[in-house]
Structures are given as structure tokens and as C-alpha cells.
Amino acid sequence: RFSHELEDFALLDDAVTGTILNHDTGQRTTVQADYLIAADGSASPVRTALDISQSGPRDIGHYINVYFRADFGPWIAHRPALLYWVAAPGVRGVFQPLDGQQRWLCQIRFDPQSESPEDYPAERCIEWIRQAVGNDDVGVEVLSIGNWSMHASVADRWRQGRAFLVGDAAHQLPPTGGLGLNTGLQDTHNLAWKIAAVSHGWAGEKLLDSYQAERSSVARFNADRSLLNSKLVGRITAAALSGKAEDNAEAAAKRVRESRHYGNFTGVDLGLVYQAGAFVPDGSDPPHVEDPVSEYIPTGRPGHRAPHVALRRAGQEISTLDLFDREFTLLAGAEGQAWVDAARQIAQHRKIPLSAYRVGPVGQAGLGSNLEDPQAVWLSVYGIESDGAVLIRPDGHV
């Protein structure tokens, strides 16, 4: 609800109560809920009220965010990009095209020891933008100005009673690489099905303790990667601004080559694995990768994200990922009907949302296989035999 604010809350043994202020009417309403999910940003009033501390580097840098409208066509039409880095004396930063046309965002770094956000009115921001573009006549319409501080910190507790931290409230990542948004979405995906399970009565309250156990180490890893990205970008900028012109290009090119991790996050995005939590280890070792940031090897090992394999259902090609949503999903081999039967019986008895399938070779659907494996690879990718099975959680983890 827009113009509404959570003014106060109380954590009880069996509920959470909150006072909500409607800023448009001035009316206050008391609400009661089973749980409180604090998705209230890096400054998180809920985290502050709960007195939850954070660990990791803070105040790494301080920035002015300028949201503006301008036509940069003459300078970028021949080189479209998602980010435009500027490295010139007095102006270092990045421009982000928000709509690919005339809406932009840029960041201006400032030193809080000698300046404050109030020292950056619209006129000064416009001057900075024009200097960065290299043209004093470009038209700039400032839409809004904000400020923020860069951190690479993670909350020491993600749960207190019936309250949970998610997203930037739980971890603040440097924006270099865009890992903060992905990490926050993963938090919410991890927590949502667990709260649903407890609320609907087919899981115990203890399941919710696995949220921090699974997510905190992932957030720390991603925060460290984001901080390294920031340092790599700084080294490129420094190289571009140092020495003679011919040396600049050579030094900058070397820094770019050394910074291949920036934007190359397949391992981070898809190789996501939980070390402990709501899954049953099978005793196997994870796939060996030289570089966990950029390398990804699909695996069905417990704790990992269940990988994509192209299957066929009723003549239509689907991905295994299409099967993972609000339910548990059991995938059994062609000779694994016993697993399918057992899973369905338990799910019905315990009222657990679950779908179970047999996956077999093409042409064996008539033998009871619900899904076909046209490339004959899914058993090897998931690491099971034809009489085995794999169970995937609603958030897509094995």
C-alpha cells in the first residue's frame, strides 16, 4: 500500500502485531499476522528495532544518485551498452540507461569528510553530467537526487522470533555486478515456501531455522565478490587516468583482462549451493571447478540448484525448471515407479503439495513414464540410476 508506514511492531509468542500509519489520511490501524518479513532496505528500521548487528566492511564509498532525462544519442548511438563508465580528471563514475532512450541514472562519489549530500543541488549535478559527457550544451532535466553509502556487510542474525530479514535488510552488497538483487530474490524464494509449509501445517516450525543456515553463507560470498568487482573497476579507472596516452590504453587493457570476473558470474548465479540446511546430504563431493565465480557444472547433488535438462511432455518440449514451482517435485528414472508411488502416498497422508513423474527414454510413455528424455542425458546430469529418484524443493534446490 502506497503512503503507508509500519510505525511500530511487537513480536509475540504466537503472532506479530503492527501499527500502520496511512500518511494520506493520518489514520492508524493495528494489524496482526503470523510473521513479519523485513524487506525494508539497507537502512531497515525493523533490523534496527531488533538490534541486529552486521559484519563486514561498511562505508566503503559515499555517492549521490542522480535520476535525470537527457539525449545522449550523439555520443552513444554507435556503441549501445548497459553501462557507460567515465574516467576523466574530476569526473569518475558510471551512467546507466534506464529505458535505452532518455532516462538515465548516474552516481557521483563524494567525501563525507569535506562534503555532504546538501552540497549537490541539481545545478551542480547537471554541471558534473555535462563535464562527464564532454559537452556544456547537452540538455539535462534532473528528476530526483538521492544519496547512499556502499557496504559489503551481512546481518549477524536473519531471524528473531517471528521476524525475518530479507534482501538489503539482511545484506548490503556493492552494486558492481548487480548481485544484490539476485541475492535478495533468492532470500525471498528460500523463505516463502518454508513459511507456507509451516502455515499450512505440513512442516514444523523448526524448518524456518534453516533460512539463515542456508542463506547467510551465500550472502557473504556474494558480498565479497561484489566488493572485489568494485576494486577491479577502480583499478581500470586508475589505469585509464595514469601516464601517457599510449600507456593508458595498454594499462587499461591489461586491467580489463585481469577483471574478467566482472560480469562473468555463471558459477555465482547457477552454481549456488547450500552447505547445511533443509536437505539430506548424499555423501558425494561437489563437482570440481577451478573458478567458482565463472564456472558452472550442472549437478543434482543435494543442496544445489536442480539443473536444466530439456524434456518432453505430451509432445511439447519443456525444461525440468518448468516443473519446480509451489510444490515438491519427485523425478524418478524409467524403473523408479516405486519411488513415484511412495512419494504420492506420503504426500497424500501428510498433505504435502507434491508432483511425481517418471522420466524415460523416448517412446516409453506408454509404460507409465510421464516425461520423455529425448537427449538421454537427465540421469547423468542428476547423478542417479534408472531405478533412482531425486526430490526437488519448491525453490528449485535438490
Structural notes for this entry:
Helix 4 (179-199) packs antiparallel against helix 5 (210-240) and helix 5 packs antiparallel against helix 6 (245-258). This protein has helices spanning 45-49, 73-76, 122-133, 179-199, 210-240, 245-258, 266-270, 337-350, 378-382; strands at residues 4-11, 16-22, 28-33, 36-38, 54-55, 61-70, 84-88, 91-97, 103-109, 140-150, 153-155, 159-160, 163-165, 171-172, 310-313, 316-319, 328-332, 354-360, 371-372, 389-392. Helix 8 links the parallel strand 17 (328-332) and strand 18. The longest helix is centred in the middle third of the chain and has 31 residues, at 210-240. It starts with a strand and ends in a 6-residue tail after the last strand. The protein is of the alpha+beta class and 398 residues long. The strands form six sheets. A five-stranded antiparallel sheet has the order 7-8-9-6-10, with helices on both faces. A four-stranded mixed sheet has the order 19-18-17-20. Strands 1-2-3 form a three-stranded antiparallel sheet, with no helix packed on it. The mean pLDDT is 92. The chain has nine helices and 20 strands.
